[in-house]
Amino acid sequence: MAPPSPRGMPCGPRLAAVLLLAAAAALGFGVRAGAAQLCAEYYDRTCPGVHRVVRRVLKKAHEADARIYASLTRLHFHDCFVQGCDASILLDNSSSIVSEKFATPNNNSARGYPVVDAVKAALEEACPGVVSCADILAIAAKISVELVTTAPPVAPSSEQGNPKDRERSREDSTVVVINDRKVNLLESESGSLYALCRSWVRNGVPHESQPSFGNGEPILPRPLPASVVDSRISDKENNGAADLDSDEEPQKNADGEYNTSDLLKQHVKRAKKIRAGLQKERLRRIERYKQRLALLL
Fold it and tell me: Which residues are catalytic?
């Protein structure tokens, strides 16, 4: 069970002193002991109306911002992608931490924080000091997905579904060690396919968590044809572009679908070749510039 937060305290703590006290409390009780007390039916007993309260706040927020459902879902994903769903993305910078909220992939990009604070305030009135901020993000994302789909929402009753699929009581993170967290999800702001694939593997995302297409199988889209890629690179100045035509076609399985692993390798291989070709072009331009500069001197 997550340690209770002070009544009325927003999900994004503003005071360093509060963070230090919360961290000390967590260390005092022991993380392992707290994790052992997690249970799927926790809020059925301690805050039965949690889903109803969150749903009401989200619907009201959606009236003013049509993008809020997608924003909250994305916020939960960004929180979980960096070492687990611990609500650390809600922490502000302080004298002792550099929060992932203001990291390059999130700063001026991730949104929905005021709505999360509104949900926290509503839950503090209904169930003071019970629902953790990590669970608020998870429940808000779940309900957001339900509200934007055409299918009827699934009742949050503890008697339905697999207990492993229901929400658990998650612990909030109160400390961020910037050197231990892979905050820079992409190697560059361009967000190339190659950088995204490396980030995906580097953060240890399992095979089952890859995006699903069609019938739910984790199948990546086919790479762009070589002709489309070659059109962006000069045929006269890039000798490596011709190598793209020699890529082997990924093998199909018995169902006629392309293997996910083979497609991913194909994407990465093609991205490497394109990057190598662009690097050669850059070096050629630098060399031509040096030659022209030598003539002027």
Answer: 78
